[in-house]
Amino acid sequence: MNKKDEAAIDSIGKHASNRSDARKGEQADSHQGQRQGNDHANPLDNIQGDQLTANKAYQRQLVATIFNMQLRVSLESDTAKRMQTDVQTETNSNVNNQTDAQENTRANTPNSTQNGTQTDTQTGLNVYTNNFIENGIRALSITFPTVEGLVGEDSFRMLSRQFLRHEAKASFDWAEYGITLPTFIESQEALEIYPFLSEVAELDWLIHCVQREADRKFQPATFASLESGDTSVLRFIAAPGLQTRNFCFPVTDLYRLIHEPYLQSKEGVLARKALLKNSTELITNAINMAIPRSLVLWRAEYKAQFEYVSDAEADVIQKINAQASVGAVIETIGTQNIDLVEWLTKAISNKLIFAVA
Amino acid sequence: MNSKSHTKPNSLIGVGLRHSHYSEALSAATLADAVMDTPNENGVKQNVDFVEVHAENFFAAGGATQALIQDIAQAYPLSLHGTSLGLGSTLSVPVGILQQFAKLVKSTQPILVSEHLCFNRAEVNGVILHSGDLLPIPYNTDSLHTIVANVQQVQESIQRPLLIENLSAYIAPSQLVAHTKDDMTEFEFLVSMCEAAGCGILLDLNNLIINELNRKTANPLELIKQRLDALPAHIVGEIHLAGYTNKSPAPPKDINQTQQAHFIIDDHGAPVSQQCWQLYQYALQKFPGTPTLVEWDTQIPEWSVLLNEADKARTIAEKVAVNIESSSRVSH
Question: Residue B243's closest CA among B213, B209, B218?
């Protein structure tokens, strides 16, 4: 922005501030009037009350249409009831097994007597419904890349479409949408051919979240205080996102199958075949007798890391995450017969722990 | 930040920086070219004065995106474009979201901060849902009160004025709820909003064109020019340019193809349209020196293609600036 623009925008602020102050009272008054049920003598209050109720009804109606939901009626004032009656009169509730956009327009489009207006409205609503679905599919494919890689793009689109209809979006950021996809996958009969998919989706979600965790500063010098400090007071500062989870299926192998560049290359064909064969055996074993394994996830730099650990090591990590004192963590390490020096050296060099404080 | 040529025209020219261009835009070679104002193989200088990013792509608490946005802010003057606040919503912006937005503004110190004239969420059956889209609001007094209050809340939080972008819309609110009739025009609404809230307008010329084309307006550019004539110059703080692909969503089965309304979708999926260039030249005469951004968000081309679009904008801006200067000299 050049100086002139800055000055211009600045002047808008200054210029408008007086007007704004002047209108603040008016605005507050009008909202007050609306909240009080619109039964005042002032005709302006009533008009604005109608507008506010109508605006809210419209916003609810359009969002409900996009989410393919039917509005439940729970309105109190006369005006609100009138608005709702308008909306219901305009609504055709016959929802059939059609595409998303078709379902929505059927369910919610005003039943205009003029074909032109009706088709315009339907087409307009189709745009918003399709935008929602396409944006959702794109966002889910970013969050769940391994799931998409394993089932293929078409099946992933179908899965996402169904999930978007099942799980309404409440978050502002698409990146925060999708936590229930693993559970949703489990409930889908059509996905029984992929018994491992729910766990893979869980791994994808965990990786996604770990990569968005707040940064922490790695402070190797602080580990010197382990020698002289009071271990009953000191605590290990964990890497961003450090956690353990149990998985029955070979999720790390399945992850590698999709993401490891060498396995996607010509040179890696044999290695890929071998990994696929091994994964298939592990999947069969897991189906026959599910034995969960502990996986630790953390972020050393920008990329999430994960590896299998023994149950004993998982116990230690859980202690760290529970903010136990260094003394208590060392005690757990001893109880689990883990070599303290070896564990500590590895935990620091892998940046599983960032500091002692 | 990179230094620029001394012969820069009045208008700053920027491009929308999207994921596929991050590495190229931040490569040492690109940044060196920008500093040296180096012409490309066709003898055309390819650089941008600023880049625009979507705020929500950098809402994560930490990780790679936070490092990336700091790199971008170091390399280029930044425009931060919000897409999720939905300031026309009758529900206010949650404090947590506002804090994320304000934190990003504080950490990146952008030259421009903008959002949209839209709503995006509502309470449906007791649950607040977020559509993730830019949905049109009615242009009535109560909508005005709502958006002014929300804009002021954001501005107080970020301690600077916002620019609010006019929208491309595919329905009018009154098509869904008859009582939401407009009691002012879009531009009257925008001007009143700016006066009351102390914000500015991000004038998206492509959105204006798409709306008129979808309304089947006989002479869309003339109509838009008339509207621009009525807009006070001082409230326009940025201009967006874009193109569109001419496609329509699949019609429902029970709608006869001949009855199917044909909508142009604002997909930012093509070079800036000829109508848009034409309108840009006109708009710059009205709003000289306005920072201008080329958007291209789907079917994203090579970085160099995007820069070529920015150069076209720069050429027009330079031409308009020279004309204005000549006219000014003659009149004196």
Answer: B209
